[in-house]
């Protein structure tokens, strides 16, 4: 898409603004990641606090639509429109396109152009490489809407390879024990598997049954996960020395009792916070996040070069304060319907 210059008289709040249902684009008559079912929705990615069932029409990347069909039974009744990165479509008076967000498979930034003005709705994003999805692409714009999940200066996520190294060293140190690794089913699970493969771990990785369908979907979309299998198919398997991935809640569930002296590991950006790690029962906290940390958030504001920034979904005040300090007109958007995922 060509870069446009905003008209000075157009207030972006007159055509894109929060409502109880979500962020509404008036000249296009659609919502972005609405909190409830709406006549027309533009979906940035497949996590449950952004992609909800029941929309009459849904525009998303092909991968996000596939994720929604996997998760929601009513998707076949929805009029689905797939839009790939770099393509655009006109909805009402608004040109809508997608750019990679680097968050999970199919995640996108919604790029809206109207009357010479461009607004980018980032959805959720991260800046570091992810072997399961294309990297975040900075898009020059007049207004940038950013998440703020880890928008405090204390959040500096360590390297992914270093955290995976911790896990593999623990596996080597305790060969008689099972490592139960808590991961979010969509995005985190598949990314951790790929990081393990890139670190040279070529053994079978066992999976909780609740992770299987989305792993199959990732494989269908070209993400090679190697040898993975559901725990339920194990025959005469002791799981000693094995890595078993599961939802974080399963670590404390009866399901975990079958494993050999399990070591509980949890993968999340919140594992930087000791109280959170204790709350999750993480003996081995692994700081692996699918969201931008503080340096990545602040660098992104500089990279996109937007004179206006709207902040939502997290620690809004700190990022607003930082943006104003570097001359950006910033404000908190206070969108409804956002929930904290396993980040």
From TrEMBL:
Keywords: Exonuclease, Hydrolase, Ligase, Nuclease. This is Ligase-associated DNA damage response exonuclease. The keyword Hydrolase applies. InterPro entries: MBL, RibonucZ/Hydroxyglut_hydro, Xnuc_lig_assoc. One of its GO terms (molecular function) is exonuclease activity. Its EC number is 3.1.-.-. It is an enzyme of class 3 (hydrolase). NCBIfam families: Xnuc_lig_assoc (TIGR04122). It comes from the Bacteria.
